[in-house]
Amino acid sequence: MTESKEQKQAIKRSNVRWLLVALMFIAITFNYADREIWVLTEPAFSVSFGWSKSGAPLSHYALMNISLILFIWSLAYAIFNFPGGWITDKLGIRKAMATFFGLWSAFTALTASTFNFISMAVVRGLMGASEGPVWPINSKVSKNWASIRDPSKAFTWAGSGQALGPIIGLAGGAALYALWGWRGVFLFFGILGILLAIAWYALSRDKPEEHPWVNKAELDYIREGKAMATEPTLRSSDTWKIALRIVFTTQAGIGVLLTFISFGYILYTFLYWLPPLMYGEFAHSVTASGYYSAAIDMALFIGFIASGPFNDWLVSRYGKVMGRRLGSIVPMSLMIAAVALSYFTGTAHELLPTALLLATAAGLMNLTVGSYAVNGFDIAPPGVTATVYGIYNGILNLMGAFNSIIIGYLFIKYGPFVGFTSAVFFMVLFLAGYLVFIRESTWKRAVDYGYKLVQTAINRA
């Protein structure tokens, strides 16, 4: 007896979960493109504001002002991760992302209206606060919408916008700058972002069972193997207590914290100091430095895309903890070698080998994301996913905020390559987080403890 056409259609699984991943990818792409166009146009608005001279390397005064504004932006971004994760657990991903995407896009457009240090610092600070919750939202999308077979793919394929965004910001921004100047770049990206925020709200839902396009086969697939079919909504006091205990009182939670702290410094070094490095040492033009940096940043995108399947495969072969240890320890060790070698080729002003080494390092860095970053929400029990990830990512970005001050000083005092390669120390710290704290026994204790805390909170409510 053969199945009817209707029966076959009923059995076939829908794939709406990947629509949510795609929408999240677009949001993160613009989150990072909107940051990178600011870095790209630093020489242009520095001249416009009277901080530096046209055609010359950025002056020490310009570098000081840029470092301070980056610090303000980064501090606002980092701090708002903490309430942003909690807000996401309360509002849900649909309302949270539409709101924050629209806000940061509006402030991106308003950057075109700035005219001095104070106006730029205020607008960029507000923009940074609005961008803060994007990664806690991505963690909750992955927790709610991904099956247990592909959490790394869902998180990293959405998060690969972090790597594509700088490419679009640098290459697209360079082309738009040539047409409309630095103010036109911000207007274009800001207005387009507002339109995309509206599209997010129209197409997304908080949970799979709420989306009209999800059929039963896909819903069963997403729920299969999960201890809780859907995330509960806990009281705010319970949410914060559970999240803080997981992050700061479990050995595995502390290990995850160390990886986030160290990755923050490494990531911000590549995101915000690669264009000034290329401009000052090799290119000496906004357009050329943008294209050189975009070429290197392509490796960030490749590493991010490969990270999900790579780490899901390691987990399927070696188990969750060992697979994720291998997925971070091996690439980060190779990255240390690549960045260390780039110091010698860079100080010798060898452009091609320096660019190749930094591209290799960038790809290896993002190959770890499917391991260390997925740990940040995988260790969280249901109901506190975005809050836990918000704490981790907030601390990561606090380190990123201080990175702008530290490297700005090193650029001025010792030169670009000493500043850039200071990230090697934090690569070693990243390895320590895995080697010392994250093991099979410590991970199991942390996860069991988290579920026990959530169940107690549910029973009490």
Descriptive overview:
By secondary structure, this protein is an all-alpha fold. The chain has a single domain (15-224, 233-460), classed as Up-down Bundle (Growth Hormone, Chain: A), CATH 1.20.1250. It is 83% helix and 0% strand. The chain has helices spanning 5-11, 16-40, 42-48, 60-91, 93-110, 117-131, 134-145, 151-159, 161-203, 216-223, 236-249, 251-283, 286-318, 320-347, 351-367, 369-378, 385-414, 416-421, 423-437, 440-460. Helix 4 (60-91) runs parallel beside helix 6 (117-131) and helix 12 (251-283) packs antiparallel against helix 19 (423-437). The chain is globular and about 65 Å long.
Characteristic key phrases:
disordered N terminus, 461 residues, single chain, MFS_trans_sf, Growth Hormone, Chain: A, transmembrane transporter activity, mainly alpha, Permease (Major facilitator superfamily), membrane, transmembrane
| Content of β-strand | under 5%
Averaged pLDDT: 88
What is the CATH architecture descriptor? Up-down Bundle
Number of structural domains = 1
* CATH class designation: Mainly Alpha
User: What is the makeup of the main sheet?
Assistant: none
Order of H and E elements: HHHHHHHHHHHHHHHHHHHH
Summing up helix and strand content along with how strands pair, one would put the structural category as mainly alpha
Radius of gyration: 22 Å
Provide a count of the helices.
20
CATH superfamily: MFS general substrate transporter like domains
Total DSSP E strands = 0
Pfam family, one: MFS_1
Membrane topology: Multi-pass membrane protein
Subcellular location: Membrane
Protein name: Permease (Major facilitator superfamily)
